[in-house]
Amino acid sequence: MSYEQEAANALPSKFDVAGLKNAFSNPTEAFRMLDKNGDGRVTKEDLQLLLQQHGVKGIAAKLLAKAIFKKLDADKNGTLEPSDLTHANGILNSLMKMKSNDGTA
Fold this sequence. Notes:
By secondary structure, this protein is mainly α. The protein has helices at residues 3-10, 17-24, 27-34, 44-53, 58-72, 88-100. Helices cover 59% and strands 0% of the residues. The radius of gyration is 13 Å and the shape is globular.
């Protein structure tokens, strides 16, 4: 099973998907929201906290953060920049579709 499928399977049946999509709708604002300590870096842990704030809990938040982060970190430097967040909603939609289709995006 791919990490993406594992993450899709971890999506809870009910969570604040509209709030999460809204959070990612403006990459610059999303970056500011994720960069809690203002150090100019967004890590997997920051992303996991955002998911938890929108109702994705426990191991599901960790798996989703890992999958989404891996797809977003374009330059693979271990942190996200605002430009990396432009595809966040598409990735979230893909994972949700994968879950609803039992593994096929």
